[in-house]
Automatic annotation (TrEMBL):
GO terms for molecular function: hydrolase activity, acting on carbon-nitrogen (but not peptide) bonds. It holds the Pfam family Amidohydro_1. Keywords: Hydrolase. Belongs to the metallo-dependent hydrolases superfamily. ATZ/TRZ family. This is 8-oxoguanine deaminase. Residues 52-424 form the Amidohydrolase-related domain.
Amino acid sequence: MPDYLLKGCAAVVTGNEVLRDVDLLTSGPAIKAIGPDLAPGDAEVIEATGWFVYPGLVNTHHHFFQCFVRNRADLDWTKLSVIEWLDRIYPVFSRLTEDCFYHSSVTALAELAKHGCTTAYDHQYCFPRHAGTRIVDRQFEAAEKIGIRFHAGRGTNTLPKSEGSTIPDEMLETTDGFLADCERLLDTFHDAGKFSMRQVSVAPCQPVNGYRETFVESMRLARDRGAILHTHVGEGESEVIRARHGMRTVDYLEEMGFCGPDTFYAHCWELTEAELARMAASGTGVSHCPEPVYLVGAEVTSIPAMQALGVRIGLGCDGAASNDNSNLMHCLHSAYMLQCLVANTRSHPVPDPAAFLRYGTSGGASLLGRGDIGQLAPGMAADLFAIDSRRMDYVGTRHDPESLIPRVGIGMATDMTMANGRIVWRDGEFPGLDEAQMAAEAEATLATIDF
């Protein structure tokens, strides 16, 4: 793998400050130096005049397989509650094959990389029996193909429909079977070392579709192995949990210990400020997924309250069935604009636009337990993306690179994305890969499913 010198960057947004008119030098998987007039040595020089360079984005919640059910009028959840939507869409999910999981993962990862994402977390909870036992393995294969960091959230659903879940029998797993596969995946793929490209977390899907023992045993395994915990919380299910267990979801999980600095929840748009305060006290993080908020028509997640209370915040695309794209850069813009929309109804002010860039970079790194990504500095991973600011799109905006993406938005792919010191997207191409062929293979696999 060659080293690179990005020569003459207009701005490098480190995550802590903006450095103007500097070079950035990589060495293997790491950043070696940032500063003016760096000597290239043996590094390949890339002319970066006009470029704004940012830390690679960290996507903390997704469901890659849902790329195969997006943009479908028959699954429009704007006309349904979340629970009604799950009842309708889970039978569709149960028809997917192993090849579907692979090609949908390639599809999602490619779109993420194009738009500046260098680390992706996928919450894979769909395990139809006919699809076999190597679904997550195929996801790691897809991530290696595209070249970005992959954190696999091995999910599950264990509560049968007869006991109140939304899960078809074809997708139901036992707690013991789930834990056994988590252990297998941890043994096979999990690398906790610096600049790791592969990690595994334990991530039962959601409390409404799992037994209590599933969550308790997930904690035991994850903490024994030093893995992150994750689940869905606060997306319309809290009163269902109260009816079953006599307490809302945050209380239910906190009472059993499924919380803490090694734990983060997805969504959390229906939580009270008191619940958020308890999460801040325990160190539990939140992956905010802004774009599904448009579709579900529910209240806007209170990011200002989370920020004020000290809750750790990252950003996620969420699955394409409730977002329809895998563009985390677009989510930065959506997240900021949604908060501005409801600002006059909130007691806390909207955080500055630059804060939303941090949620999508260092905030995401914190949720995933990573101290080696999310910022640009010597010794950190060479995970970055570049935007050529010399376009009409950016006239009048170039004085504030930190706010550009959240406030103005970026309507195109990056000019370059680099992960772990390797260029994975540049000048409209995936180096060494044929995008048209990848798309055709994915479409052909999609065509084999009878929806």
